[in-house]
Design a protein that fits this description.
Elements lengths: L17 H4 L12 E6 L2 E7 L2 E3 L2 E4 L5 E5 L2 E7 L1 H8 L1 H6 L10 H12 L5 H14 L6 E9 L2 E7 L5 E3 L2 E4 L3 H11 L6 H18 L6 E8 L2 E10 L27 H5 L4 H7 L1
Antiparallel strand pairs: 1-2, 1-10, 2-11, 3-4, 5-6, 6-7, 7-8, 8-9, 11-12
Helix pairs in contact: 6-7
Length: about 280
């Protein structure tokens, strides 16, 4: 329509174009249970190991506890590619300066330690994570539980995809967080020792495994103290097969197949002359 400089107000002639201008895809539901607990001398992080692709289990033993620095780790829930890209776990483990991913938090912490010649602080990683996630306004699907120990003591932070954060003695994220939080709120005690914290985190992740369809498989733990970090891969394993069919004595080595209903692929798919087929038979 021609532009009329004398006209004022809004024009609603093209309002119907809003219905067909763009199509917004529905968000994808992700499944994970992660949590962290502060104990007397450090922190314990925990996560399940199920990775889903829609309604399909893509990986039964996926690692969701990511390395950030020698004194801090980070549990990731949401899109696996986003959590790996944000933390930069693999490249920093290899200490490859020539191939550092641009923007990964672990790489920035590594460079910060190299220039300052002092250990990284947990609040430094928290600030970098919050700024990076807030910049993308939630389009990076990474919900994180950050845990570590520095000169100010043990810390647990939960970071949301939009950039907000919480600081609590225990935290949980993911689709199984409600079941895990029920265990943490009812059983957490201040000043607990390392074994009690490990058992509490294990029970919290187990609650998510057995009450959330998106969580499952095993329990991974990471214990961080002032002396260092210990990764406990597959600390607890659930839902194992009670019988392996290949090794079961109940299954004979040779299985006879019923071939009476089988049809040759060539005869079923290739057009043939009925008269010639009758003669061949």
């Amino acid at each position: 329509m021609p532009y009329d400089p004398l006209a004022s107000g809004f024009a609603f002639n093209q309002y119907h174009a809003n219905d067909t201008a763009r199509t917004v895809k529905a968000p994808t539901k992700t499944g994970t249970t992660i949590c962290g607990v502060v104990f007397s001398s450090g922190v314990v992080l925990g996560a399940d190991t199920r990775s889903t692709n829609g309604e399909t289990v893509a990986d039964k033993n996926c690692a969701k506890i990511h390395y950030l620095a020698p004194n801090m780790f980070c549990c990731g829930a949401g899109t696996a590619a986003d959590t790996e890209a944000v933390t930069g776990r693999l490249t920093t483990r290899l200490q490859s300066f020539s191939n550092l991913p641009s923007g990964s938090v672990s790489s920035e912490l590594l460079l910060h330690r190299s220039f300052s010649d002092r250990p990284s602080k947990v609040v430094t990683a928290l600030t970098i994570l919050k700024e990076r996630l807030f910049k993308y306004q939630g389009h990076i699907g990474a919900a994180l539980v950050l845990g570590g120990v520095d000169g100010n003591g043990p810390h647990i932070f939960s970071v949301y995809p939009h950039g907000s954060s919480d600081s609590l003695p225990y935290a949980t994220m993911g689709s199984g967080s409600l079941a895990a939080m029920a265990v943490l709120e009812s059983e957490y005690q201040e000043g607990m020792d390392e074994n009690a914290a490990k058992n509490l985190v294990t029970r919290a992740i187990k609650a998510g495994i057995f009450n959330d369809l998106g969580s499952g498989s095993n329990v991974d733990l990471c214990v961080i103290t002032k002396d260092g970090a210990k990764e406990l891969r597959n600390h607890q394993t659930y839902n194992e097969r009670s019988c392996n069919l290949r090794e079961s004595p109940l299954v004979s080595e040779k299985i006879e197949l019923n071939t009476s209903n089988l049809t040759r692929a060539t005869a079923a798919s290739t057009p043939i002359n009925t008269s010639r087929a009758t003669q061949n038979l």
